[in-house]
User: Fold these one by one.
Assistant:
Number 1:
Amino acid sequence: MPKETILVVEDEEDILELVRYNLAKEGYSAEGVTSGEEALQKVPAELPDLVVLDLMLPGVNGLDVCKALKSNPKTQHIPIVMLTAKGEESDIVAGLELGADDYITKPFSPRVLVARVRAVLRRKTSQAADETSVLQVHDLVIHPGRHEVLIRGKPVELTFTEFRILHTLARRPGWVFTRYQIVEAVRGEAYPVTDRSVDVHIAGLRKKLGPAGKYIQAVRGIGYRFKE
């Protein structure tokens, strides 16, 4: 079976080598470039399975690279894991809303980075599953066709919006969604986007789920995720 290929985009040579070494040790084929310009040439030409992308690049920065890759039909399917400076919440939100799949803040543990990469690649494979199929996660069963949620066999009455939020989050455990992404998934871009409206729906959803509401986790400054 061919190795999955990963392109690391990082201008700091020591971090680049650290990431490449640890990915290679886990069996991935890892290459590296040190600028956004190189990344925009290499990704469409070689189509790696995943890109690890530093946001703080000289010249063409990581957000611009992410935007270009996600707006190109040839590369938009390639997952992106962002490397960000600690506390740069606005950049994380911007990257996720441009289509990045996950992020990790510096300084980071190489083991954590490898685990995040593995999880994103696994999610990419599982996304081919039909959205209408029954979903079982933790002690919840979610049936999109019936608009039905069961917790340990007992039905829970949810509104359309609550159901869609739960289904969106539960389909990708561990995946962080911004409030904007949640609204987009539930209603489409025409729906009025406010942080407060999402927070209110999440609060109502958690209450109805009872003890299972703990699976919906807030990610400070970013949005929400469903517990892995």
Number 2:
Amino acid sequence: MLLLATAISLGPYQLAPGDLLAFLIAKATGAASPLSAPAEAVVLRIRLPRVFAATAVGAALASSGAAYQSLFRNPLVSPDILGVSAGAAFGAVVGIFLSLPVLAIEVAAFVGGIAAVTIVYGIATAIRGRDAALILVLAGVVIGALFGAGVGLLKYLADPCNQLPAITFWLLGSLAAANLRDLTSLLPAVAIGLMLLALLRWRIDVMTLGDEEAAALGVNTRLLRVVVIAAATLMTSAAVAASGIIGWVGLVVPHLARLLIGAAFTRLLPVSVLFGAGYLLAVDTVARTLGTVELPLGVLTAVIGTPVFLWLLAFSRRAAWS
């Protein structure tokens, strides 16, 4: 709650904590607002949608990372391991390149993410006789690189005066344009994905024992893998469509949560959701208040995530799955 109040209060138009509390009480009780009309507009139309978007995106990326890491029994994988982020980025860049409206760009990003994971899973299904999880990860890397090449080609062909700046800004990741309309597509997708993961949390824990052991305990491993990947992909695609590419959240947050509470997915999921929401909200608050110019979220998360990832590499044995 303190982080939420801080995020709403800080910014170019600063609000006193007492005034913000009085405003929230007035809204809850139906009393007259103590804020001026400009201040109320800043809170309702700019700050609150952005705060909700940051918490939803952070929760989506962190919970997706936790699901992927538990499913593949590897704490060093992230939500874009199946090429979802690259596919969603390609879809959004196609929309920007074609000068489509904002809603169409978000739909294109979602379709791109779904297309990427569908292709990856199709490749993994077609290649039999080898480690299914390993093939899935390698196929994700390859398809992600392919979609990344498509993004690069569209940037090369884009109009350098109008389209290229928009594409570059979106790829860096930002919540500056978050509004209530974005929340209507983001929040339901995140809620559906989290609900599916919560309902399957016990089966996901069983999957950490290995496919053969899980099958012996009565778990339909193939169906479970499809549902978990679909839920994580839905949340990741929705997050990318709303905020652009924000990396490292799905890698860093679940791993730190696992260090605190262990690898059991029943505990890891809610902690990852809370940590992810708080982490991205804090980073977004820093991004828009650190200087006179707002910093891209993707840059800040990379600055924080890179040393953490190097630490994970250096202590990979300690961070091994347990």
Number 3:
Amino acid sequence: MNPREFLTLAQRLSLETTEAAWRSAISRAYYAVFHVARQLLEDLGFTVPRADRAHGYLWLRLANCGDARVQQAGRDLNDLRRHRNEADYDLARSIQSRIAQIHEQLAAQIIQVFETATLEPTRTQITDAMKIYERDVLHDVTWHP
């Protein structure tokens, strides 16, 4: 499955007329970005863990990759996760259509940044920086040739 299909669904849901749809739009927007990020790191040679550990794994490496645009996208991925958690779990907090639209637009922008990160020279630069970050800071090397 192409993870960008989640973004297409988020865009449709954000235009619906119910709060449940808007909450679902935020969730789908996050997961579109999450899966694109996972795919990016796997394509770069990193072994991304499954389940809950994958969320922190992705944004920490991306936010410390040495490229300003990709680093910001990594931090934005983490922010989207926080908003996804609020949308999915905090039913007392009201969600409006405009908020869902803002999140799906941000998701589209992040995906675009990740797509350009697959091109040289950015690809090699971020891979090298994340390898150093894993080795020197995290002491958890998951990159493999």
Number 4:
Amino acid sequence: MNDLVTYELDGPIATISMDDGKVNVFSIPMLQALHEAFDRAESDGAVVVVTGREGYFSAGFDLKTIAGGTGPLLEMLTLGATLAERLLGFPRPVVCACTGHAYPAGAFLLLASDVRIGADGPYRIGLNEVQIGLTVPWFAIELARYRLHPAYFDRTVVNAAMYGPREAVAAGFLDQVVPSDALRAAGLEAASAAAALDPVAHAATKRRARAQARAALRSAIESELTLPTDPAGK
């Protein structure tokens, strides 16, 4: 882990907090730190609360890395895709306490988590790739297909519609919206309730319920996020 992500264990609950001092972009170091935090949470057998800094859950993938060439781009996308895959199949419950804006890769974590609680406010949540000239990755389409309400799927993925927190509940990004000053308590309350679930039954049922979605996500990652083969075999 690094200074971008902190890990705090309190009884059965681990809080993973993102804070890059700006808008919480998913740079390679941020994503590596998140994976390390989930390694630790898995080792601790903890229920997880993922949260961001005030006003920003995450503004998505780092645009500087996107412009930095195929190698760094694929590394970043793979780290982001496998993080979402990991949350979708994490053995203990994962609660997202969304502190503000979440787009687009930040929204991937909302789509992959078990419980999603958002702070009320003038925030935007969604997948804005098409709006900024990017094609939505296959793995993101599969996540959206699995979790979004069907009536919102095309609006979100194809037309890059963005939503305030309350409409994000209707779309399928969030389950609940609370006042911003109540978000931390709501996230911990949801995590405490989740900690009371039988861990074996939860993990087994999650595997069954999400088997098809996880297989589609894995197929998308393997088909799209692969470094090109050097014809010289180097």
